Amino acid sequence: MxxxxxxxxxxxVLEAGVPVTVVVAxxxxxxxxxxxxAGIEAxxxxxxxxxxxxxxxxxxxxxxxxxDALVARGVDLVAMAGFGTVLGExxxxxxxxxxxxxxxxLLPAFPGWHAVADALAAGxxxxxxxxxxxTPEVDAGPILxxxxxxxxxxxxxxxxxxxxxxxxxxxxxxxxLRVLDRLxxxxxx
Length: 189
Ligand code: GRF
What we know:
The protein contains 6 helices and 6 strands, in the order αβαβαβαβαββα. It is α/β, with parallel strands linked by helices.
């Protein structure tokens, strides 16, 4: 699993019994602590070592190091849950069709890092979450599961995001388990 934040979706994935080999983060974060606490390897591939968050960031090299770490551990499926770095081609070459992402909007609506704020700003009355296969193009791969979530009068970004995450904590583990089943049976993800 790849995560950068509080890791509540990661926590739900672990609770659902998804076999997780390693949790990788791009910065120190609670997701790493959660992994360690659950007895799972917590690996920090620190973005600051690769040029940080500005124009000096070496995305290709970062992707290479992270991908090599996953390959070395024999990972079958890569699942991102709030991972704050867009990874380059090398990851998708190594895990073609085996990279999943969960996103807090009904894609293709509101792609990007500010999906919840963007939905609020657009004044929609329904948003939701999407589990999809990740491709080199951000928030654009084939959709595997989607569920609507209502926007309620007076919602703040935090309140709405939490309502969406409650659904993600159910939908993402269930979808990951379904994909793992398919991979085990030899079918594509
Ligand atoms: C989720 O809403 C996910 O879709 C988004 O980041 C959030 C992760 O939340 N990309 P958490 O860190 O697991 O609480």
